[in-house]
């Protein structure tokens, strides 16, 4: 299901990976529904709920990324050539563990069905909101809200920075927007990087057209910024108001800066 909460400000917060729902016809094919939910951007929808009070529009899907990843290239092309990453309909977890029982992986027809049922509606909703807000504002910011475990050896070395800003190597938004967000992270004394391991997914790359007034930027939070991460055996961690409040101290000015940036464009 796609959930859209409409605001009138020049900011869209897109949340493609917080969903945990797995349809009944897919669940029996999986090795474990719990394993299938392990790579969710846990609680990100709850973390960014405050954005509506700033005037932002929020869009999210309640469907698990294991079913289909709405932030991947629908053609199936990898976003990070030469690096491990999961696909449009992932077959393995971020740790490389199989998601499906042998012989139960989705074939081409099943992938096409999922695209029509889940991927296309998400992007139709997103395009509708982009067009609506562009009619109201000279420019808008599309902010892709993500999170990931702080340590995922198969995806990256060591411990991830807390705030990972992606701009598709400067192509998806004006450089001053990325600089302002990075400056807020620095002021908050939070570790951060611009266009490091995470440069932005398909949504950021596809919709980011600064010359047409759509500035797209991705924020990949290390989960320790808003929850106390736990060992895999104890997953998932619980929502933590204290950790979330600490994250909000940086996220509120970041989103406000994005709105101010969009309003300043001519």
Automatic annotation (TrEMBL):
Keywords: Hydrolase. The keyword Cell cycle does not apply. Its EC number is 3.5.1.68. It comes from the Bacteria. Pfam families: FGase. Gene3D superfamilies: Zn-dependent exopeptidases. The keyword Hydrolase applies. One of its GO terms (molecular function) is N-formylglutamate deformylase activity. It is an enzyme of class 3 (hydrolase). InterPro entries: HutG_amidohyd, N-FG_amidohydro. This is N-formylglutamate deformylase. It comes from Sphingomonas plantiphila. The lineage of its organism: Bacteria, Pseudomonadati, Pseudomonadota, Alphaproteobacteria, Sphingomonadales. The gene is hutG.
